[in-house]
Design brief:
By secondary structure, the protein is mainly beta. It has one domain. 7% of the residues lie in helices and 38% in strands. It has one helix and eight strands; from the N terminus they run αββββββββ. The strands form two sheets. Strands 6-5-4-7-8 form a five-stranded antiparallel beta sheet, with helices on one face. A three-stranded antiparallel beta sheet has the order 2-1-3. The longest helix is centred in the N-terminal third of the chain and has 9 residues. The chain is globular and about 45 Å long. The protein starts with 14 loop residues before the first helix and ends with a strand. The model has no long low-confidence stretch (mean pLDDT 95). The structure holds zinc ion. The site of zinc ion has 8 residues, from loops.
């Protein structure tokens, strides 16, 4: 854990996502009407406006859709982590289903668009784990 690191504050909509992360499962909210996945968690489907949704465990596999290198820390807590690569990962379940994170077990200069990655869960507090990424193996 990084001293001073901001932690997620689960609410009614996002609680299943964070509880899944704590258990080591990547859960995505899915519309019960049109079956479209969505992230971030929210009450209404952006596709069909249905309020009915379920939570489904997804593969945790995706590819780097885009990335940047942060050279200045956005908060003092991250001062010793820069330069830091921040990636946008598109999950294989659905084009447009994307999460922000960081790539572990990979040199910054090896991150590229299209890099196949898989989720890893990083414990940052007693009851909080964050989904991060590493290059896919095999
Ligand atoms: Zn829908």
């Amino acid at each position: 854990m990084i001293e001073g690191q901001p932690l997620p504050e689960p609410d009614e909509d996002s609680r299943p996502f964070w509880e899944g992360c704590r258990r080591g499962e990547l859960l995505m909210q899915r519309c019960a009407a049109c079956r479209r996945f969505r992230f971030y968690p929210r009450p209404m489907c952006p596709g069909c406006r249905s309020f009915d949704s379920t939570w489904e465990k997804v593969s945790g596999r995706g590819t780097v859709y885009s990335w940047i290198v942060a050279h200045k820390p956005v908060m003092p807590a991250f001062a010793d982590r820069v330069p830091m690569v921040v990636v946008l990962v598109e999950l294989e379940e659905d084009a447009g289903l994307r999460l922000v994170g960081q790539v572990r077990e990979c040199a910054n200069e090896d991150v590229r668009i299209g890099l196949p990655v898989e989720v890893v869960f990083e414990s940052v507090a007693d009851d909080v784990s964050l989904p991060q990424w590493r290059p896919r193996r095999g």
